C-alpha cells in the first residue's frame, strides 16, 4: 500500500493565532475562560516542543483536535521533552496520512478514525519497513490521544487502536530481519563513512551519532543554548530519556565544523534544514546517514540508520574491553542488560560459529579415523 503524504497540509491559522495571543500570558485562575487556558498551555508547549512543531500542529489539525492535543501533550503523564516532541511529530504524520489515505480532512481525525482505518495504517507502516518498535510508538501515541480526548475532554469518541491486533510485538521483524538484528558496522566501514562526510553538517552529525553515541532524538533536540563555549572544545548539555541531563565534551575535530555550521547563529536548534531553517527531524537524520553510506560505498546503505552508528559505537567500546558500567552510563541505558545486548547479539554469531566449527572438525577427524 503506497500513500503519498501532502507536502503542505491545509492551513488553519485561527487555532494557533488564538492560542498565542499575547494578552493571554497570565497564569490561569479558576475563573479563566477555556480559550485563555489554552493560550497559557500553548505558550508552555512552545518552550517545550518548539514554535515550529506547535505551528505544524495548528496547521495540520482542526481547532478542536488542536486543543485536545495541546492539553494531552502538556499532561504530567508526558514529562520527557523528547516524548512530547516525538508524539507531536507522530500525530502530525498520522493526521497527514489519514487525510491522504481517506480523502477526508485532518479535522475528521478524532471522529472518523476507525479500527479498520488503523488496520490500513498498520499495513502502510509495514509496507514502509518500519520496525516493530516504531510502529508501536506511533500507535501508542494515537491510542493515548484518544483516551485523553474521551476521559479528560468528555468527547464522544472511541479508541480505535487495539495494540494486540495492530502492533507487532517487540522483538519481531516486519521486513524479514530476525528479532534484535540491529546492524553493526565494522570499523573500516565506519572509517569509510567518516571519510564520506563532505559538509560541516555531515561531520557534525557523524560526531554526535558515533563519537558521542547520542540517540537520534537527542541529536535533533539539541539547541544552541545547550552549548557551553566557556570550554574548549565546547561542552554540550544533552537531555536524555527520563528528563535527565548529561554534559559531553565535543571532539577537537568536530569543533571547527560546529563553528562553521552555526555561522554566527546564537539561538535556536543546532541542526536546521538548509531551505526552511526549521529544526531537523529524525527522518531527515536518517536520510543523512543513508546518503553517507551510499557515498562510502557500504552495502545496503538504506539500512545504515542513526541507530546503526550508535549501536556500532556501543559494540566497539565493549569489544575494546571498556567497563560495562561506564559504557552503560555513556549510552544512557537504564539497565546494563540493554548495553550488554548490543555486544551479545553481535558476538553470539562469532561464538556459535566457533562452536559449530569445532563439531565440524571433530566430525572430520572421526571420518578420517574410520577411513584409516
Automatic annotation (TrEMBL):
Cited InterPro entries: CB, DNA_brk_join_enz, Integrase-like_cat_sf, Integrase_catalytic, Integrase_recombinase_N, Integrase_SAM-like_N, Tyrosine_recombinase_XerCD
Highest taxon above the source species: Bacteria
Membrane-crossing residue ranges in chain numbering: none
Pfam families assigned: Phage_int_SAM_1 (PF02899), Phage_integrase (PF00589)
Residues covered by the Tyr recombinase domain: 180-355
Chain ranges of the Core-binding (CB) domain: 63-150
Keyword DNA-binding: yes
GO molecular function annotation: DNA binding
DNA-binding keyword on record: yes
Keywords: DNA integration, DNA recombination, DNA-binding
GO annotation terms (biological process): DNA integration; DNA recombination
Signal peptide region: none
PANTHER family recorded: PHAGE INTEGRASE-RELATED, TYROSINE RECOMBINASE XERC
Protein name from the UniProt record: Site-specific recombinase XerD
Taxonomic source organism: Saccharomonospora xinjiangensis XJ-54
Amino acid at each position: 500500500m503506497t500513500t503519498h503524504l501532502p507536502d503542505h497540509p491545509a492551513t488553519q491559522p485561527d487555532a494557533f493565532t488564538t492560542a498565542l495571543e499575547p494578552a493571554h500570558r497570565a497564569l490561569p485562575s479558576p475563573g479563566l475562560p477555556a480559550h485563555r487556558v489554552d493560550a497559557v498551555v500553548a505558550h508552555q508547549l512552545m518552550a517545550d516542543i518548539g514554535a515550529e512543531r506547535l505551528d505544524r500542529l495548528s496547521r495540520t489539525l482542526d481547532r478542536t483536535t488542536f486543543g485536545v492535543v495541546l492539553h494531552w501533550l502538556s499532561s504530567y503523564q508526558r514529562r520527557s521533552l523528547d516524548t512530547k516532541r516525538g508524539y507531536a511529530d507522530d500525530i502530525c504524520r498520522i493526521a497527514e496520512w489519514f487525510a491522504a489515505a481517506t480523502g477526508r480532512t485532518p479535522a475528521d481525525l478524532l471522529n472518523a478514525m476507525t479500527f479498520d482505518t488503523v488496520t490500513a495504517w498498520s499495513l502502510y507502516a509495514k509496507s514502509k519497513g518500519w520496525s516493530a518498535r516504531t510502529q508501536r510508538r506511533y500507535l501508542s501515541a494515537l491510542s493515548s490521544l484518544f483516551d485523553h480526548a474521551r476521559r479528560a475532554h468528555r468527547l464522544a469518541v472511541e479508541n480505535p487502536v487495539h495494540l494486540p491486533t495492530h502492533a507487532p510485538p517487540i522483538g519481531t521483524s516486519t521486513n524479514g530481519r530476525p528479532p534484535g538484528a540491529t546492524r553493526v558496522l565494522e570499523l573500516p566501514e565506519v572509517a569509510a563513512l567518516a571519510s564520506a562526510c563532505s559538509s560541516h553538517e555531515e561531520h557534525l552529525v557523524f560526531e554526535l551519532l558515533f563519537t558521542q553515541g547520542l540517540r537520534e532524538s537527542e541529536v535533533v533536540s539539541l539547541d544552541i543554548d545547550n552549548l557551553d563555549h566557556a570550554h574548549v572544545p565546547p561542552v554540550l548539555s544533552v537531555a536524555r530519556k527520563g528528563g535527565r541531563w548529561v554534559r559531553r565534551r565535543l571532539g577537537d575535530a568536530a569543533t571547527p565544523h560546529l563553528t562553521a555550521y552555526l555561522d554566527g547563529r546564537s539561538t535556536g536548534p543546532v541542526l536546521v534544514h538548509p531551505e526552511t531553517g526549521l529544526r531537523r527531524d529524525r527522518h531527515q537524520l536518517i536520510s543523512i546517514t543513508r546518503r553517507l553510506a551510499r557515498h562510502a560505498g557500504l552495502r545496503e546503505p538504506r539500512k545504515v540508520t542513526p541507530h546503526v552508528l550508535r549501536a556500532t559505537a556501543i559494540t566497539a567500546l565493549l569489544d575494546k574491553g571498556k567497563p560495562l558500567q561506564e559504557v552503560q552510563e555513556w549510552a544512557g541505558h537504564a539497565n546494563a542488560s540493554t548495553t550488554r545486548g548490543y555486544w551479545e547479539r553481535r558476538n553470539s554469531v562469532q561464538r556459535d560459529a566457533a562452536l559449530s566449527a569445532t563439531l565440524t572438525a571433530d566430525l572430520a577427524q572421526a571420518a578420517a579415523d574410520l577411513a584409516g
